[in-house]
Amino acid sequence: MIERSEQDGAPAAISYDDVWRDVYGDMQDVGPVHRHMRRILAGVLAGLDYGDALDVGCGAGHNLELLTSPGCPRDRISGMDVSSEALGRARERGEGSLFQLDIERDALDGTWDLVFSSLVLEHLVDDVAALRNMRAMARRHVVLTTICGDFDRYRPWEEAMGHVRNYRRGELEGKLAAAGLAVRRSIHWGYPFYSPLVRRVQNRWRAQPAFDRRARMLARALYGLYWLNSSRRGDLLVVHATVA
């Protein structure tokens, strides 16, 4: 289980440095859910017009290429994260302007056409404050991904990942509306092979930063199987909202 700590007014900063060293890694690059999520996001982002973008919870910069578009080159993409370990890895990837900041507590000065945040909200105790801060930094679009479902059913895996919630259907959309954002599109993906089947099995897995040969073979097999998942049902949620 990931321990959440609070020191010097910065909750979770130290623990998420540990997560990036001890848990995250190959999952973000070759994990089958992450690969399908990027595929879905590419389709959503392709329909948006934006000239600059901010990645909230940018981690090690895995989404830099995803956010790059003809109208938004790499030098117009910024990133922010609570973890100095993650930001160090993002700099190695060539991420643009980077900022260390806790989205639950503050927003950056300035605004961006697109505020993007992937697999962050499920980690945050005060997601309502985070959404308000994202709204304050958005000129046009907000695109989010997170996890839905029954948290208690998947508690061993969720807590190992540092998650504090899974959203109920419609819950995030309601919080976005309260933050001053209009939901334009919601995609639920993953039924039945990711959720509930593999999600139940994950309760007995221990995440490893580096995939061995067997884990990579399994990831490739699941990626192929996951093409059969529904884009109308499932626990991976992708939402596009605009400034109301």
Task: Explain what you see.
The protein is α/β, with parallel strands linked by helices and 244 residues long. It has a single domain, classed as Vaccinia Virus protein VP39 (Rossmann fold, 3-Layer(aba) Sandwich). It is 38% helix and 21% strand. It has helices at 13-22, 26-30, 32-46, 64-67, 84-93, 127-137, 155-160, 171-178, 193-202, 213-225, and strands at residues 6-7, 10-11, 53-56, 77-81, 97-100, 112-118, 138-147, 181-189, 236-243. Helix 3 (32-46) packs across helix 10 (213-225). The termini are far apart. Residues 1-5 and 7-14 have low confidence and may be disordered.
Q: Helix proportion of residues, in percent?
A: 25-40%
| Total beta strands | 9
Main β-sheet description = 7 strands, mixed
User: What gap, in angstroms, lies between the N and C termini?
Assistant: 38 Å
Return residue spans where pLDDT drops below 50 for at least 5 consecutive residues.
Answer: 1-5, 7-14
Considering the protein shown, what is the CATH homologous superfamily?
Vaccinia Virus protein VP39
Total number of helices: 10
Summarize the structure.
The chain has 244 residues and is an alpha/beta fold.
Q: What is this structure's SSE topology?
A:
Layout: E1 6-7, E2 10-11, H1 13-22, H2 26-30, H3 32-46, E3 53-56, H4 64-67, E4 77-81, H5 84-93, E5 97-100, E6 112-118, H6 127-137, E7 138-147, H7 155-160, H8 171-178, E8 181-189, H9 193-202, H10 213-225, E9 236-243
Parallel strand pairs: 3-4, 3-6, 4-5, 6-7
Antiparallel strand pairs: 1-2, 7-9, 8-9
Helix pairs in contact: 3-10
